């Protein structure tokens, strides 16, 4: 291994250690408690060393957010649903998405409630054309197109429908994260009822001429 490759590997190792520490602090104490000094203390680095690898705390946060969001996208994209009816694809994908979000509550809040320009490049999905540019929304959009393929509904209607389903699900997830003392059975009922209402509404719209 050459000197250049070794230095690059060392750089990546140091960056990864910093990111792991920052992620741990966010999970344990919340995003507002994260600081360069706290990361430095945790991994026994000086703050100056951390600034050598990251421009500022914002860059560390944005890197973690993008990683976690990409994890969600990979999970949704890997779902084996090709043999399902489109409405069942939506049910399964929504259920899996909710489960994944609830398994990483602090990370989820940090990702989806972040309004920095850099993060919104990956997470915004209410703009026109989002169904093409956002993989997560596209999964839902394509299933809706299958359902409505025999209807004279434009792409804009289908995209708007996907956006509303997505944001409604986002709202439920946030409330379940915030109201964390809800009994597990009630949580299951809420999730099931939400998904049923979403899919039943989609099917109902299909029957309207």
Automatic annotation (TrEMBL):
<feature type="domain" description="HTH tetR-type">
    <location>
        <begin position="12"/>
        <end position="72"/>
    </location>
</feature>
<dbReference type="GO" id="GO:0003677">
    <property type="term" value="F:DNA binding"/>
</dbReference>
<dbReference type="InterPro" id="IPR009057">
    <property type="entry name" value="Homeodomain-like_sf"/>
</dbReference>
<dbReference type="InterPro" id="IPR001647">
    <property type="entry name" value="HTH_TetR"/>
</dbReference>
<feature type="DNA-binding region" description="H-T-H motif">
    <location>
        <begin position="35"/>
        <end position="54"/>
    </location>
</feature>
<protein>
    <submittedName>
        <fullName>Transcriptional regulator, TetR family</fullName>
    </submittedName>
</protein>
<dbReference type="InterPro" id="IPR050624">
    <property type="entry name" value="HTH-type_Tx_Regulator"/>
</dbReference>
<keyword id="KW-0238">DNA-binding</keyword>
<dbReference type="Pfam" id="PF00440">
    <property type="entry name" value="TetR_N"/>
</dbReference>
